[in-house]
Amino acid sequence: MNRYLLSDPASEDATPTRVPIDSRVGIYRLGDGSKTIVAETEGQRVDLAVRDATVSRKTDGRPPVELSPISRGISVRNHGSTNPVSLSTNLRTHTLTAGDAAAITDDCRLTVGISLTLQATVEREGSQRSPAAEQAGGVSPAAHARTLANALRAASTDSVAESRSVVAELRSFLDSHQLDSSEHEAVQRRVEQIERRLESKAGGLHHTEELDEEWQAELTALSDRIEGLYARASN
Fold it and tell me: Is 194 found in the same domain as 100?
């Protein structure tokens, strides 16, 4: 798996800067008055060829936004950006306030500051295409299920609210992509049960904002089950 950060330079003649995310990559504005935005890795500091005064500078030596490689793709953390950090995929836009983190499992637009937009890209080995490529050629139910399953795995480590959002999308997907099998019916019932439990967790007596490891394991198992169900049906 390869992971990259790409800039969209202001000049039409400029070539986008491509930064490998093999280790931690910090994004911040230089404090020299130039408004220069850089990506800092362990070995170098790369000028992204963009200027934006609304991107935060380093605080106590730590960048406001940091990207790190993880097994599923890329982790994005807002360490203390004055302005929110937004992640936009084919499915949704998610905002990270200071202290928040999220996992990227496919291509994603990363907005830092007021208007600076960067591209985070996850390239997997083999023939699997990104959701953007799948949409261009028509998304099969198996590909759509895989995308939603990846989104649920990422959401389970993010928050209850994000997990509820993805589970609701999964329920709609299952309803509109029926399979003639008892397994499909069982998965539908399971998703409905989990959706009700998440609603209770979000607003009931046992209200929490994050999911514990047991919940994460349960949602990961559900993701695997749905992805496998539609993969088998496509063969």
Answer: no
Task: Count, in order, helices (H) and strands (E) of the chain.
Answer: 5, 12
Helix axes 141-156, 213-234, angle to 10 degrees: 170
Please tell me the distance from the alpha carbon of residue 221 to that of residue 207, in angstroms, as a whole number: 23
Assess whether 41 and 94 both reside in one domain: yes
How many domains does the chain fold into? 2
Same domain, 97 and 208: no
| One pLDDT digit (tens) per residue for the chain, 235 residues | 788 888 865 545 456 678 888 889 999 999 888 888 999 988 789 888 888 888 889 888 889 999 988 877 888 888 888 777 888 876 678 888 888 888 887 788 888 877 788 888 887 665 344 444 344 334 578 877 887 888 888 888 888 888 888 898 888 889 989 998 899 999 999 999 999 999 888 876 667 788 999 999 999 999 999 989 988 887 6
pTM over 0.70: no
- Same domain for 200 and 173, yes or no, is yes
